[in-house]
Amino acid sequence: MKRLILVIGFFFQLWSPVLFAEQIVREFSFGKAKGSTAISLEKAQPYLEAQGYGFEFSTEKNVVIDHKNKMLLSKKPFYFSVKVPEGNYKITIRYQGLQNKSYMSTIRSESRRLQIENQVVLPNKVLDRTIIVHIKNPKIASGGIVALKKPRELQKLDWDEKLTLEFQQTNYISSLRIESINAIPTVFLAGNSTVVNQEDEPWASWGQMIPLFFDAEIAIANHAESGLALSSFLSSKRLDKILSIAKPGDYLFIEFGHNDQKEKGEHAGAYKGYSDRLRYFVREFRAKGGIPVILTSTARRSFDEQGHLVHTLGDFPDAARKVTAELQVPMIDLNKKTSMFYEALGVEGSKRAFVHYPAHTFPNQQHDLADNTHFNPYGAYEIAKMVLTGIKENQLPIMEHIVDFQGFDPQQPDDFNTWYWPPSLINSVVKPDGN
Fold first, then answer.
1. Three-class SS string for 89-126?
2. Is 411 within 8 Å of 309 (Cβ atoms)?
3. What whole-number distance in Å separates Cα of residue 241 and Cα of residue 138?
4. What is the pLDDT of residues 350-378, one digit of tens each?
5. How many helices (H) and strands (E) does the chain have?
6. 55 and which of 60, 259, 382, 430 could share a cystine (Cβ 3.0–4.6 Å)?
7. Which residues pair with 404 in a beta bridge?
8. Do 320 and 257 touch, CB atoms closer than 8 A?
9. CA–CA gap between residue 288 and residue 9 (Å, rounded)
């Protein structure tokens, strides 16, 4: 599903990071093709490091190559990967309509980042869809390396130096094109498990839902990770990594608080270390010519016996608000918006936004799941809409690139019963390590 046109040198030179300034283009077609510059896939093959592309997780068995019509056909989930260097990539998928009926396709990238949702392909129509995917690696240009969590991050698709696409529902595809793209704004995300690209079902976070709502002129680069506070984000060199690749006009969305609560010591606390570090993030990113945005932490689901929401984050949301006012930084008050959301759903209804599932809902799940901090895909999707609302409220220039979004009121959320998420093949019943 992906094709490569080398604009420089030999095939293996393509992977050299030194050459990333040159445009990289890969294009894939299906069945035998004569006179084409695309890589022609005549059969579904597993990913091979030597050739640098192929199907993952044994899903090649879910794919049929139709040689007569020169299409890839599948009604089951499959993953396809291509080895590429770090950077932003524009990916164009060409869908082919069936003769007699329409169908729907969903595509996610890397660690379950939602890119295309329930795309309807009409009969006898050809449809091109273009998405932007950011690929990252832990190397820092100025020296050093991001301290990835072991083994968690070492196993994630986000860090494997390949571009992976996850296809869900029905897919009839005639070609797939991948090309590097540099001159677009990148929105970097810094945060914890409420922001991170969650690798496994049934967990999800708003950071992996938000790519869906931007056109092909904005890249989302999610550098959040579970269990991190502002201090550990710094000590693991994640801010250094962002600063090493950020350019003027890029954005940094900063959401912390859950794990900052746990810090001990004389300088710990909302109005001490937490506030000082927020100031540091803002100052350093502004020095790069970027636009920082502070988000208050998502609230936890905690109700008292009378059914009133209990606010468990102490002074941290207030401290974030004070820093934004002091430094004149745009702010998105997720703590307030998520609190309204849970109250609107009610004590029992709010469980539908979190990882609350009876035993045996997922493979190998022996026990009930009752997680009141981490979101499921529905909850993450709703919170992504709150972030989009905040972008519009702050009149940030990237609002011009928001698509398929008419606004959102957390007191009138989408109906859980009409929302659909085809589960990924990757799933786990192991609780994420911290917030």
1. EEEEEEEECCCCCCEEEEEEECCCEEEEEEEEECCCCE
2. no
3. 7
4. 999 999 999 999 888 889 999 999 999 99
5. 7, 19
6. 60
7. none
8. yes
9. 33
